[in-house]
Amino acid sequence: MGLRKDFLWGGAIAANQVEGAWNVDGKGLSVADVAMYKPKVDVKDYSKQVGVTSESIQEAIKTDDTTYYPKRRGIDFYHRYPEDMKLFGELGFKTLRISIAWTRIFPTGEETEPNQEGLDYYKDVFKEMHKNNIEPLVTLSHYEMPLNLAVKYNGWVDRHVIDMFRRFCDACFKEFKDDVKYWLTFNEIDSVTRHPFTSAGIIPDKSNNLLQDEYQAFHNQFVASALVTKDCHEIISGSQVGCMLTKLTDYPNSSDPRDVLASFNKNTMNYFPGDVQVFGEYPALVLNFLKKHHIKIAMEPNDLEILKNNTVDFVSFSYYMSMVSSYDENNLELTAGNTIVGGKNPHLETTDWGWTVDPVGLRISLLQLYDRYHKPLFIVENGMGAKDVLTVDKKVHDQYRIDYFKAHFREMIKAVDSGVDLMGYTSWAPIDLVSASTSQMSKRYGFIYVDEDDLGKGTLNRYKKDSFSWYQHVIATNGQDLG
């Protein structure tokens, strides 16, 4: 069968990891602007890497430092996007997933009128994308909510944030209705319980009951997602809105039924945010979990109706690795993953950052998601962080990256041949950028090398890696020739 003829090949980036220009043209502070590079903290210790306190936030607000707050500088995509877009066009991209920084449009989140300079910037970005025959895929919330809303309201714990987010989204829909057809609401919405500040603006020391607040934030984001899905459909004729999930595929460590049960429980909670956005209702097992943990979600009378009547058009997800679970964690060797630590599968190799490499897991994930949701799927993040070396002649010989993608594409195509309806694939990330979890530049994902180190030193010049021409050929043949 192979991939559909209009398969959307491309790449994915996020505003807070590439744009820089953190205080330019009226932009306000976001939660990403206080994320620190912590070279003395183990890169696998995610709780310390992304952890914040009220005190650390206030210290960040007082400084203009961009060395240890690297998401403030990114890779200067804000000024270099025409150059980068030309490279993406040369790769043959059919689509590029980007995010719109909320604080470029509403600097504090509480304004009633949008910042025109921010709107103009993204208008120009979309113009450049279309100039290179690239279809935008836009994420509305990608770990960059206004810092003011985190400090003042404890982020998505407060229901008032729904109206502010809806105002931001509506401004985007009205301004870009002729530019953007495909939209995503919340990036990896399930991540609220893994990194509550990054994902939902929750400052842990402001919470009396963190678990309660996390699930309240979940609910408020679900309602917001449903409402802006409704708004998008009404404002932009023919638009499609998707949810975005982290697919944390988990296997039992053994055939011991207790291990099977432990894995089932992990996967059930991972599916929960997708279930709400696709089916429009809370799963029975999750409702029981909330009851057992004495979590009482404050709902408005028509919330459940809003969820039921405004489900998503497609399901997008990130997939990087898989893990294993056991009823007794002493049985496991632990390793890092996508902002989690879990059981290491002894049958799989790992990346420089300890993430398991599991191409077959991508095929399994596609089959699981399609069997569960019966909605078109879109892989919007997949890739490997590696320690690339730029040679004297400005080359990067990254056969390991080619091998990684080749293996994953083979399994992706097998899943399609099994009947999965797959819209497209965007690699994370087509160009080197600041890592979401560890705020490093040395954790490189791209087909394009950016000359910048972890402390922000370098020319910022862009260089094509060996994988650039390989991915270009894969796109040109629509995956029929993996080289």
Automatic annotation (TrEMBL):
Any one Pfam family match given in the protein's UniProt record, by short name: Glyco_hydro_1
Keywords: Glycosidase, Hydrolase
Molecular-function GO terms, alphabetical: beta-glucosidase activity
PANTHER family found in the cross-reference section: 6-PHOSPHO-BETA-GLUCOSIDASE ASCB-RELATED, GLYCOSYL HYDROLASE
CC terms in the record's Gene Ontology section: cytosol
Organism: Companilactobacillus paralimentarius DSM 13238 = JCM 10415
Listed name of the protein: 6-phospho-beta-glucosidase
Active-site residues, Swiss-Prot/TrEMBL: E381 (nucleophile)
GO biological process terms on file: carbohydrate catabolic process
Phylogenetic classification of the source organism: Bacteria, Bacillati, Bacillota, Bacilli, Lactobacillales
Similarity comment: Belongs to the glycosyl hydrolase 1 family.
